[in-house]
Specification:
28% of the residues lie in helices and 27% in strands. The protein has 580 residues and is of the alpha/beta class. The radius of gyration is 24 Å and the shape is globular. Keywords: Ligase, Magnesium, Membrane, Transmembrane, Transmembrane helix.
Length: 580
């Protein structure tokens, strides 16, 4: 890896040509077209139209030795073994399953270094990866399978019972444990990784615009939608920003992670995977981006605070990515934590997925004064494109940072559609190479969210200040954020009104100190019904994943609605704090 001054000059010149001339250097705002431009150096993308993201990642030059470490077992996987396994799994899928370009493979698994192996193998064939939440119910997973129609599923024996009967599966664990539920086991991943490739496979030509992943994200309508992202989208995210590797600064930057030059040399200083790999950020960051730049990832199979803290101490981790509620717990239990664990190596915590208040930040810094707290912003639909903070910005409370490289933004008045300027609040629109292609088999939702010019309407009320820093003010969308998970109120409302004693219902976010928010239901009972709060909670808990459970119920004579029938959630949101 080296610093190419001439290439950096060419990229800057290219950026200057593509951008309008009247871009304010301080804010990045252009008055000519009311567009904000990233102030970060542009990142060059491959010119060839035929390139899959796996091949792109494999061609990156780095000095990494260990790719992944299993925090539970201590098992290590080197980069050479990783790529050997990717090639062997790809050959098996091609020759034994007949997997071809455009076919879909489902992954239902807790965090494991088997996930990157499967993802990279599948995408190298031009096939599509889709993931399912391990906490989802069998019914929820069946709906996703019916929509995406996967050829094969990779899962564990413990989770196989959630898959519908008849689907073919590959078990990811080393020991072949026969699962129940009527699924058909066609292989064991660990055994595939041992087979020598024949070398006779003919690779399909994969276009950068072909779909690489399809990750499901709940929308405000309640229907889970498959977000389709291309190889080019993922390449733009995993592309190492070598323009930022400046010898004088000893800094290397990619997306949300900032690692010192010393860390790049001492690759055993692991970055801990604290988020689920079925989620867009976990998958793109810990299964792809870290592989591209040669960082070691310590994988927690599932998030548990004590395990995380033990891993920080054992592997001397310097940076973590956490949801805001975890910061609250670490703050409240700081004295106990410091007695049990040595966290002196920790220098930075980046938060995303939910708003982080100034009060929470200041409380955390009082307990951990040597740690910088940063924020970042992105969506499933943006594949990491959005904004993030640098270390020098850590005292700017409330901001999620400046725009990521090559991203453009607009602030749009949601009522009039008028384009706004600095320090004005409106809906945030994003545009750039990482923005996804739309929603799978859902043209209506795609048209609502992505306009014809390629702008992604985020549904978030934001503003950008005179220095180009983005602030998330509120959400136009109605999603509830429970410990970083998204919960669609409409999905729960649709289930509630199927109860024989419920006439009408509305679900709102209820503030919680630890979880951030949780779903609360307002229920109108049918005449003569004695339906209780516990009965409502139990009715929903049997049908949804744990993070979607309703945790509070209030009974009301009628649900407030507009003349057109839309629920007035803002009126209901005012009630809990004042009357409950």
């Amino acid at each position: 890896m080296h610093y190419d001054k001439e290439r950096n000059k060419r990229e800057k010149k290219k950026a200057n040509v593509e951008r309008p001339s009247l871009v304010d250097s301080r804010s990045g705002f252009c008055k000519e077209n009311s567009t904000f431009y990233s102030k970060r150096n542009p990142i060059s993308l491959p010119a060839s139209p035929s390139l899959d993201v796996t091949t792109f990642i494999s061609c990156q030059i780095h000095r990494g030795i260990t790719a992944f470490i299993d925090a539970t077992t201590g098992q290590r996987l080197s980069f050479s073994d990783l790529w050997r396994a990717v090639d062997r799994v790809a050959e098996w899928l091609y020759s034994e399953v007949g997997l071809r370009r455009g076919d879909v493979i489902l992954i239902l698994s807790p965090n494991s270094f088997y996930i990157p192996i499967v993802c990279l193998a599948v995408m190298s064939l031009g096939a599509v990866v889709t993931t399912a939440n391990t906490l989802s119910t069998a019914g929820e997973i069946s709906k996703q399978i019916a929509d995406s129609k996967p050829t094969l599923a990779f899962t564990t024996a413990q989770l196989a019972h959630k898959l519908p009967a008849g689907i073919s599966i590959v078990l990811t664990e080393e020991e072949h444990v026969e699962p129940t539920g009527g699924v058909r086991v066609v292989g064991v991943l660990f055994e595939m990784m041992k087979k020598e490739p024949s070398g006779q496979r003919v690779r399909d030509r994969v276009n950068q615009e072909d779909t690489a992943v399809m990750l499901y994200s709940s929308g405000t309508t309640g229907a889970s939608k498959g977000v389709i992202s291309s190889h080019r989208n993922l390449t733009s995210y995993t592309r190492p920003d070598k323009n930022r590797f400046v010898p004088d600064l000893k800094t290397f930057e990619i997306s949300f992670i900032y690692m010192t030059n010393i860390q790049l040399k001492l690759m055993e200083l692991g970055l801990i995977c604290t988020v689920p790999m079925f989620h867009t950020f976990g998958l793109l960051m810990f299964a792809m981006a870290t592989v591209a730049i040669g960082l070691t990832v310590v994988i927690l199979r599932r998030f548990e605070l004590n395990d995380l803290l033990a891993a920080v101490e054992k592997y001397r981790a310097t940076a973590l990515i956490l949801a805001p509620p975890v910061l609250v717990v670490m703050t409240n239990e700081a004295d106990i934590i410091k007695e049990k664990c040595d966290l002196s190596s920790l220098k930075k915590v980046t938060c995303g997925g939910a708003p982080l208040s100034k009060e929470v930040t200041e409380g955390f810094l009082k307990k951990y004064p040597t740690v910088h707290v940063l924020q970042a912003y992105a969506l499933t639909e943006s594949n990491g494109g959005g904004a993030y903070m640098d270390m020098v910005d850590s005292r700017r409370y409330g901001t999620v940072g400046t725009l990521t490289p090559d991203v453009e933004a607009r602030i749009v008045d949601p009522n009039t559609g008028r384009l706004l300027g600095t320090n004005q609040t409106g809906e945030l629109w994003l545009k750039g190479p990482s923005i996804s292609k739309g929603y799978f088999k859902n043209q209506e939702a795609t048209s609502e969210t992505f306009n014809l010019e390629g702008w992604l309407k985020t549904g978030d009320l934001c503003n950008i200040d005179d220095d180009g820093f983005l602030y998330v003010v509120d959400r136009l969308k109605e999603l509830i954020k429970y410990i970083g998970y998204q919960v669609a109120p409409a999905e729960l409302e649709a289930l509630l009104i199927t109860h024989r004693d419920i006439l009408d219902a509305a679900v709102i976010p209820f503030p919680d100190k630890e979880a951030g928010q949780y779903p609360m239901a307002y229920v109108t009972r049918k005449l003569g019904s004695n339906l209780s709060e516990k009965q409502v909670i139990d009715f929903i808990s049997k049908q949804v994943a744990p993070y979607k459970k309703i945790r509070k119920v209030a009974f009301i004579n009628s649900i407030p609605k507009t003349a057109s029938g839309k629920i007035l959630r803002k009126d209901l949101i005012k009630l809990p704090s004042s009357k409950l």
